[in-house]
Amino acid sequence: MKRVFAHIGFAFAITMLVLNLVPAKYDYYLMIGLAVLLIASLIIKKFRQALAVPVCLGAAVFACLIFILTFNLYVIPEQSLDGRKAECEFYITEEAQVNENGEYSYTIKTTEIYRQNSPQNIKLRLKTNKALDCECYELLHGTLSFFSIGDNAINSRGYWGDKIFLTSKLTAYSKTGKTVNSPMKYIEKARQGIRQRLSQIPGDEGALSRAFIIGDKSGISLKLYTAFKSAGTAHLMAVSGLHLTAICGFLLLIMKKLKIKDKVAFSAAIAVIIYYSALCGFSKSIMRAGIMMTVLMLGRIINRHGDTLNSLGLAVFIICINPFAIWDVGAVLSILSVLSLCTLYPYVFKRVKLVKPFKNYRLNDAVQYVLQGVGGAACIMLYSLGATFIFFGYISVAGLVSGIILILFGSLATVLTLITDFAIRLKIGAPFIFLCRIINRVIIFSVEKFASFRFSVISFENYFGIVFAIILIIFAFCFIINRRWLKKAAIVSFAVIALSLVSMAVVNATSSYVYIAENGAAAICSGNNTVVYNVASKNDYYSIKHFLSSKNKGIDYFIVENENAYSKQLAKQFGCNNIIENNYSKNVDGDFSFSYNNEIRPYIFKATVDGVSVAFNKYEAYSNDINIYKKECTDKYGTFKLSNGDIIYRINNNHYSARRVDIWQE
Fold it and tell me: Which fold is adopted by the domain 85-181?
């Protein structure tokens, strides 16, 4: 059987995907059912001789076993601490992330939890209002309050994929005078050294350099981060195969010029891959690239030809040993991108090579380069549609073109940043810092231009999930019944997806929406009118801006509780002249009735159009009556005060309410 690891890896991953979707109580039944099918495939001669069926079923049964063991040995014991408090000894594993409200977020590990029957040596998040006065891997003693991060991998926002099942708050702490010895301690020191040296490159240019080398996006402004997402180039900031290939390719080129033997060069490259993966925190995307490149290098050392799909399957299998990694967005998009380039892109490449519109071969090469770039981006986008629908709810059309330019510049910037870091060590960094700033400025300028296109982003509607499911069923049917129909199925699928994207653009222009940002800002779109309310923070500004851009909406009325720079800037950018401050305005009419009460201070929006789509992050509801309360709320039980920062969004017709504190709760 060819490509054994490809069969094992993808069967393993698909099973993990299903196990994360179904309730945990059904995992045993699924494993028993798959085990029965495995035994049947070994008994039936036709399937036994084919090997593929029993191998895939064996991988699926093993996936069930790993998932059940992990869930029972790690998740359940750790989540038993939810809502409890205990004295602990712990240490910080990496530098803090600071949000715009000045709150600090750390990743910590416990060495001792002084509570009976508690799990030990667990990894969790810690939130504090002030920076902790300690170094990484310095042992601390303190009192922690524990809180669960979601009840499954899907709604944990990627934390379960990092084996973090709890978040915590610190009551008090003291230093123990001890430090924890770990190899990662020295890796973290190396990260801090790179971060410190590259801080000599100011602003977003320096932040981009740090993102290219160690995946540290903490210094990137929200404006630039939003632009990268809209331009479809956010993957450039996540260290992955692009960066690892650029670095290893550069090092191999140097060793070739120095006439170092291939086996020695490839062995050195493997060592660099392992070290660099650790430097980037063993993120799922870098692990995928690192495993595949290591397999390739080992093949060159022992004079064996590597198979890309087999290498990808092995990488997928190793990554999915952590059962919740399959819901890590970086891992999923990285795997799907490589899969598209291995399977679909070769057919596109063959067709592009036949395109020769000019007699001059250099012009033909230029045309083919552009077409190859667009074709590769289209292949990746097609394979990633399902993932982008689930994780983001939108796609970047600009990414079809932006990748051609920015991938080239991103690779160059990665290598140049590596050289700059080395030059700074030698006290000759000034000219390299200058070059880094120039190329990063070109990248930033290009990203902002691509992001500024009106239709750079297209949002998915709910029915797109049905469309995507139908396409998968069509392909599965053709694969099982008659593989000759696959080409026809591909043509039909392209047509269906194109029609869906066009229809989504039309739906965006005609539908009614209510969007609630993380910090309480709201945008209501109904008919030809759009009302925006209370944009008072940087996060709100970019969230509302991104939402309006994705729906191709302007702003007709802007309700401002307290005048601030964010509201002014957003109103100016979208050309809004109707700004309402601290009182009810009769100018807000048409499809809306808006009431504002200064005395009891609840803010109430009432959208009068049927079928308003209300988005509370990923929740959807439909209503004719949408209320937004702040400060205090009146209902059938009376009037009650809301804590500072709390907001209640209530959809009356569907009996749905959500209260925003730090997380969303239904």
Answer: OB fold (Dihydrolipoamide Acetyltransferase, E2P) (2.40.50)
